[in-house]
Amino acid sequence: MRFTVSLSLISIAAVAKCLPSLVTDDSASIPPSSTVFQFSQPVDHFGLNDDVWQQQYQLNATFYKPGGPIFVVTPGESAVSNSYTDGSYFNNLAQEVNGMVVAVEHRFYGKSNPMPDLSGPSLKYHTIDNVLEDFASFIRAARTAPGDVFPFAVSPDSKVIFGGGSYAGAIAAWMRAKYPSLVDGAWASSAVVQYRLENYQLEQSWGKHLAALGCATGMSQAVNQLDAVLLSDNQTAIDEIQSLFGSPSLTPRDFAGLITSLIGVAAMYPNYEGIDYTQNTVCSYFDGQRSDLDSFAWAVRDIISSLGLTQQAMTQMADTSLNWDNYALGQSGRVWYYQECAWYGNWQITAPEDTGLAPYHSRLVDLTYYEPNCRNKFGSDMPEHADSDGFNQKWFGMLKNATNIYYTVGSLDLWRGSTVVPWDGDSLPNTDVSPIYLMDGATHSQDVAHPWSDDLESVKDARNVGLALVKKWIA
Ligand SMILES: *[C@@H]1O[C@H](CO)[C@@H](O)[C@H](O)[C@H]1NC(C)=O
Ligand SMILES: *[C@@H]1O[C@H](CO)[C@@H](O)[C@H](O)[C@H]1NC(C)=O
Ligand SMILES: *[C@@H]1O[C@H](CO)[C@@H](O)[C@H](O)[C@H]1NC(C)=O
């Protein structure tokens, strides 16, 4: 459920270091939140490469009063923009407690590029330890030498709350766990903190929602029928089924990947801003008037036409090796792929047959659909499989005794299986020091979104609980 959001970034060149650090008229010197600042970082914090690059950040200090806290957020796998300083609940929190919001771009995303390209050798500096140390260095400067970071007067030793949603929610939690003396507390919304080589928990969460809507059995039967054809070696039947789904002629695996992506983009959104896309885009087609396979095909054809996809666009969408030798900067999908190959796997696949679980996507979308591209894209140094268990033991393990982390998870969050309260498997205890709020009926990271009129009661309540915690942490 990750798609590339393209946000317009108004880039106003500004170098914080040239600006005076002591000013008396605060309101006159607070820059618009669209101003982009830069902070110098080494390519590698652990001595492998001391070259310097510039990390981008933007800030909203409209509500800041001396002594107030700094809410540090990161867009994670997206480019920074003032939607992250102005358009999230952290902006409201800042208003409540005289704080400011600083959005710091994640290395290798947006324009925060440690290296001149995105080749495998350049991306070897893309480690989670470097990512977190970038944020830590920024926070250290903000606390000890605020004049180096802010173009207006900011108190030294400010309290710092790290916040984020989804992958950035995990970063928030890790920042508090790893740097408790720099980060006073973390608000980790729908934090994706459990990593597995095979992430079929996402697909199975969606299956639970299909079941609640009454079309899980139909969908899973349709998928089984589809797979029987795709695995049949009967080219006539394979051609027929691809044309039934409105697809160009592809290999069976790429075709399965295409359909899975289309469903992921258009249908895996239960209760998103009051609309249930799973119901509208998939389940409403399973109305008993036609076969399950025809219902599925009809739903997919309608997704294709509503997205206006050409045959060429679909061929590209299906091909995970696309642009394997294009190293140009600015490809967030490529950097994300590297994280999957080199850090944690977490490949979004369908439950393998030996789990005994019903499938809701084609089983042809398995590890062999994704993993071979790691070496194609990033070179022969890539491991055959990511060390998901090692990553998880270290980074999920680190959270087990961490304090001052507020975890929020929606009960309908499809990513719930990767959070601190999965359906089954390892969960964190809900403690007074690091409480967990399971928001009834909510989906992914709704609490940290900008408040709107139709917010669920559970989301509003989770925000109030979080606000009280923030007040405690900064007191
Ligand atoms: C800060 O965010 C608020 C929205 O709450 C917005 O109205 C204001 O213009 C922003 N401040 C600056 C200086 O851009
Ligand atoms: C292959 O599929 C076609 C179309 O569904 C069918 O008519 C034909 O009998 C199949 N061939 C075999 C050998 O099963
Ligand atoms: C973490 O907390 C648990 C339970 O309180 C305790 O048994 C364990 O020893 C602690 N681990 C560390 C690394 O402090």
From TrEMBL:
Residues 1-18 form the signal peptide. Keywords: Glycoprotein, Hydrolase, Protease, Signal. It comes from the Eukaryota. Pfam families: Peptidase_S28. The keyword Protease applies. The keyword Hydrolase applies. GO terms for biological process: proteolysis. InterPro entries: AB_hydrolase_fold, Peptidase_S28, Ser_carbopepase_S28_SKS. One of its GO terms (molecular function) is serine-type exopeptidase activity. Belongs to the peptidase S28 family. This is Peptidase S28.
